[in-house]
Specification:
Elements: H1 18-37, H2 44-55, E1 59-61, E2 65-68, E3 72-83, E4 92-104, H3 105-110, E5 114-122, E6 125-129, E7 149-151, E8 154-157, E9 159-165, E10 170-178, E11 189-197, E12 200-208, E13 221-229, E14 232-241, E15 248-257, H4 264-267, E16 277-286, E17 289-299, E18 302-311, E19 318-325, E20 328-329, H5 351-362, H6 374-379, E21 381-388, E22 391-392, E23 398-408, E24 411-421, E25 424-433, E26 440-451, H7 452-455, E27 468-478, H8 482-487, E28 490-497, E29 500-503, H9 504-510, H10 514-522, E30 527-540, E31 543-553, E32 556-565, E33 570-579, E34 591-595, E35 600-604, E36 619-621, H11 626-629, E37 645-647
Parallel strand pairs: 5-7, 5-8, 6-9, 19-21, 20-22
Antiparallel strand pairs: 1-3, 2-3, 3-4, 4-5, 4-6, 9-10, 10-11, 11-12, 12-13, 13-14, 14-15, 15-16, 16-17, 17-18, 18-19, 21-23, 23-24, 24-25, 25-26, 26-27, 27-28, 28-30, 29-30, 30-31, 31-32, 32-33, 33-34, 34-35, 36-37
Helix pairs in contact: 9-10
Length: 648
C-alpha cells in the first residue's frame, strides 16, 4: 500500500499569442472609446417608444438624458412630458423640469421587477381628473396583471398637483414640497393651495403622506390638513383609503365657523342659523353613510355633543342625529324661529347677527319675520333628537328641553318639543308643511303645572306667589315666517290657575287702591289667597278675542275683555278691578292695557273713575271653560267652580 502524497498539479497562464493579444487590446480600446464617446441621448427615442407602448400614453424627453451605471443605476432626464387620457382637454397629465431615477439592476435582471429605489422630481406638475364615465386619468395601460413596478422613495421640489372632479364641482390646485430631514426615503409632503369644493372656494394647507402612497388604495393614507372656506374652518387628521374617491377613512375632524348655516352649500346638510360654533369628533364612512361620532364642542354660549350621520345615494340625503347639551343658552335657539341670538356683553354672535340685532332693536315689531328657506327644508330628510339637561335663560324660568325633529320632503314635525318650565311642563307638537310655496303650520301646546312663584324670576312681587298654571293652545296658520304664521292664526288659547296666593301689594296696585298700596310699600307686603284665574281666547285671522278673562282673590276681583292682535302686535284689553275692602281711596277704575308687544302701556280709564261708587256692584257668576278645568288645580268645594261673584 503506497501512502506517498501525490504531486499537485500546477497551473500557469499561457502567454497569449501575438495576434490574440492584439484582438483583445483592440476590443478593450473600443469599449473605452465607446464609453467615452457614447451619447445617452441616442436612447431617448427608444425609451419614449417603449413607455408609450407600455402605457398607451405619449411620452417625451425634451432635454438631456444621462446615465450613471452601477448596481444601482441612476438615470437623469430633463424636460419630461407624459400624455393625458384622450378625453382630457389638457394634453399632458404630468410634466417635470427634471427627473432623477435610481434603478436596482439585479432585480431587473433576475426577477424582471423594476425597482425604483429613489425618485427625485424638480418642478413636477401632475394633473389628476375624472373623466365623463367616472374613470380617473391615472388608470392606463394593462391593469389586469400584477404590477412589476415598485417605488421605494420620492423627493419633490417645487411640485404642483391639480385635481379636477367636474361632477362634484370640485377642483384643487396645490403646491407640494417634500419635508427635509432624516426621515424615510419617501418623506411627507407639505401642501398649500386653493380650489373649489362643491362649487365653493376654499384654501388648504398642511402635511400629507408621500404621493407614492396614492396608488396603494388598500393601504391607509395619512393626512393632516386645515381647510378654510369663507368663514368656515376644518381640521382633518387621520387616514384615508383611496383618497380621490373617499372610499373609506378614519379622521378626527374639527369644524368651526361663524354660522352653521354656512355648511349647507359645502356639505348639503341644512341647519338653522346659529351663533359661532366649534365642534370636534370622529369622521368615518360606511358605504353611503358618513358618520360624525362622539363630537363635542360649543355653539354660541352652549355646549353641544353627540353623534350624527348622513346617508347619501337616495332621493334626498338623510340626517340622523342624537344631540345632548349639558348647558344650553336659550337665546342660541333663536335661529330656529328666524331671530338672532342676544348680542350684548359677552354673548357669542357673529357680525351679521349683531347687525340684525341692531336693526331689530329699532324695529317697532317683536315677532321674527325672517322667512324660512324652502329650498333647505326640501333638500334633505332628518331625524334629530336633542336633549338639554339645563337651560340658561335669566329672564325665563326654563329648566330643560327635549326635542325630536322629523323632516320628510319638506314636511317638518316636532314631536315632541317639550320644555321644563317653572317646575312644570310645556309640551308641544308642531307640524310645518313646506311642500307648497306657503308653509302651513299647526301647533298643539299643553301647559301643565307651572309654578306661579317661579314664572317671573326677575319680578320681586311674584316671589312669594303660590299656584299652578295650566292650559291648552291650539293654533293653525299659514306663512313663511313666525310673524306670518301667527299673523294668520286661527284656533284657541286657554290658560288658568286654581287655588294659590299672590302679593297683596300686587293686587292693590292692580286695583289702583293707592292708600293700601302705599301702606304696603312703606311697611311689609302680605299675601292674599287666590281662588282662581283664567283667560279663554278665540283666535281668528291673527286676532285673539276674549271669551272670558277673570282673576278672583279674597282681596280683589278683576274681570276683563278685549283683544290682542298677533298680526299687528297690538294690545287692547280692559281690566275692571273691584276691591273687596272699603278703602276710601280705592279708585276702582278700569285698567286699559294698550300699545304694542314691544311698547305696552298700562293706564287707568279716568273717564269711568268712580262712576259706580265703592259698593255699586252688578254681580254675575263666571266660571272657567270646562276644558280648562281639567288642566289646573282648582281645589275642592266651591272653588272647584271658581264660584265667586264677579263684578261686571
Amino acid at each position: 500500500m503506497n501512502d506517498a502524497p501525490r504531486p499537485r498539479r500546477r497551473f500557469a497562464l499561457r502567454p497569449l499569442s501575438r495576434s490574440r493579444a492584439v484582438v483583445l487590446g483592440v476590443f478593450a480600446a473600443l469599449i473605452v472609446v465607446g464609453a467615452l464617446l457614447f451619447e445617452w441621448n441616442w436612447l431617448r427615442g427608444p425609451i419614449e417608444r417603449v413607455v408609450t407602448w407600455k402605457t398607451g400614453r405619449a411620452f417625451d424627453i425634451g432635454g438631456n438624458l444621462d446615465v450613471d451605471l452601477g448596481r444601482v443605476t441612476t438615470i437623469r432626464a430633463d424636460a419630461l412630458s407624459f400624455g393625458n387620457a384622450t378625453w382630457s382637454k389638457t394634453p399632458a397629465m404630468a410634466v417635470a423640469d427634471r427627473a432623477e431615477l435610481s434603478v436596482a439592476v439585479w432585480p431587473l435582471i433576475f426577477s424582471r421587477e423594476t425597482r425604483l429605489t429613489s425618485i427625485r422630481l424638480t418642478r413636477p406638475r401632475l394633473r389628476l381628473e375624472f373623466g365623463p364615465d367616472g374613470t380617473g386619468n391615472w388608470v392606463f395601460g394593462d391593469t389586469t396583471g400584477e404590477s412589476r413596478l415598485r417605488y421605494d422613495g420620492l423627493w419633490i421640489e417645487g411640485g404642483r398637483l391639480v385635481f379636477v372632479d367636474p361632477e362634484r364641482r370640485t377642483d384643487l390646485d396645490i403646491q407640494l414640497d417634500s419635508v427635509a430631514g432624516d426621515g424615510p426615503a419617501s418623506p411627507p409632503v407639505d401642501v398649500k393651495g386653493k380650489g373649489r369644493w362643491a362649487g365653493n372656494a376654499f384654501t388648504v394647507a398642511g402635511r400629507v403622506e408621500s404621493p407614492l402612497a396614492l396608488r396603494q388604495t388598500d393601504k391607509p393614507y395619512r393626512i393632516d390638513l386645515r381647510v378654510t372656506a369663507g368663514p368656515t374652518r376644518a381640521h382633518a387628521r387621520g387616514t384615508l383609503l383611496d383618497p380621490f374617491r373617499l372610499r373609506d377613512f378614519d379622521l378626527r375632524l374639527m369644524l368651526a365657523g361663524q354660522n352653521m348655516e354656512d355648511l349647507f352649500p359645502l356639505i348639503g346638510v341644512a341647519t338653522p342659523s346659529s351663533p359661532p360654533y366649534r365642534l370636534d369628533g370622529r369622521f368615518t364612512r360606511d358605504g353611503n353613510t358618513w358618520h360624525y361620532d362622539d363630537f363635542n364642542g360649543i355653539v354660541g354660549d352652549s355646549d353641544l355633543g353627540g353623534s350624527a350621520n348622513v346617508t347619501v345615494g337616495r332621493e334626498r340625503p338623510l340626517l340622523k342625529a342624537s344631540l345632548v347639551s349639558r348647558r344650553l343658552d336659550f337665546d342660541d335657539l333663536a335661529g330656529f324661529v328666524g331671530a338672532p341670538p342676544q348680542t350684548g356683553g359677552a354673548e357669542a354672535s357673529n357680525a351679521e347677527q349683531r347687525k340684525e340685532a341692531a336693526e331689530l332693536a329699532v324695529d317697532a315689531r317683536v315677532l321674527p319675520d325672517t322667512p324660512y328657506d324652502l329650498t333647505k327644508l326640501r333638500a334633505m330628510d332628518a331625524d334629530v333628537r336633542w336633549k338639554a339637561h339645563r337651560i340658561n335663560a335669566p329672564k325665563l324660568p326654563i329648566d330643560d328641553m327635549d326635542a325630536h325633529l322629523l323632516l320628510d320632503a319638506g314636511l317638518l314635525r316636532l314631536e315632541p318639543l317639550n320644555f321644563g318650565v317653572a317646575q312644570g311642563d310645556i309640551r308641544s307638537t308642531i307640524r310645518m308643511d313646506a311642500r307648497s310655496d306657503v308653509i302651513r303650520t299647526r301647533a298643539d301646546i299643553a301647559v301643565r303645572g307651572l309654578d306661579l312663584g317661579k314664572l317671573f324670576p326677575t319680578a320681586q312681587l311674584t316671589q312669594s306667589a303660590i299656584g299652578r298654571i295650566g292650559g291648552n293652545v291650539s293654533l293653525t296658520g299659514t306663512g313663511n315666517s313666525i310673524a306670518g304664521i301667527l299673523g294668520s292664526a286661527n284656533g284657541d288659547i286657554a290658560l288658568g290657575m286654581g287655588r294659590g296666593q299672590v302679593s297683596n301689594l300686587l293686587m292693590e296696585l292692580a286695583g289702583l287702591d293707592i292708600a293700601e298700596a302705599l301702606k304696603f310699600l312703606l311697611t311689609k307686603d302680605k299675601t292674599v289667597a287666590v281662588r282662581c284665574a283664567f283667560g279663554d281666547f278665540a283666535v281668528k285671522d291673527g286676532v285673539m278675542q276674549t271669551r272670558t278673562l277673570a282673576f278672583d282673590t279674597t282681596d280683589t276681583i278683576i274681570v276683563g275683555k278685549g283683544q290682542v292682535s298677533l298680526k299687528e302686535e297690538a294690545l287692547d284689553l280692559e281690566l275692571k278691578p273691584r276691591p273687596k275692602d272699603r278703602s276710601i281711596f280705592a279708585l276702582r277704575s278700569p285698567l286699559i292695557i294698550g300699545g304694542t308687544f314691544k311698547d305696552p302701556s298700562f293706564r287707568p280709564d279716568f273717564k269711568r273713575l268712580g262712576l259706580r261708587g265703592a259698593t255699586a256692584l252688578v254681580l254675575a257668576s263666571i266660571t272657567p271653560p270646562a276644558a280648562l278645568l281639567a288642566t289646573i288645580e282648582v281645589g275642592p268645594g266651591e272653588d272647584s267652580g271658581c264660584g265667586g261673584q264677579y263684578a261686571k
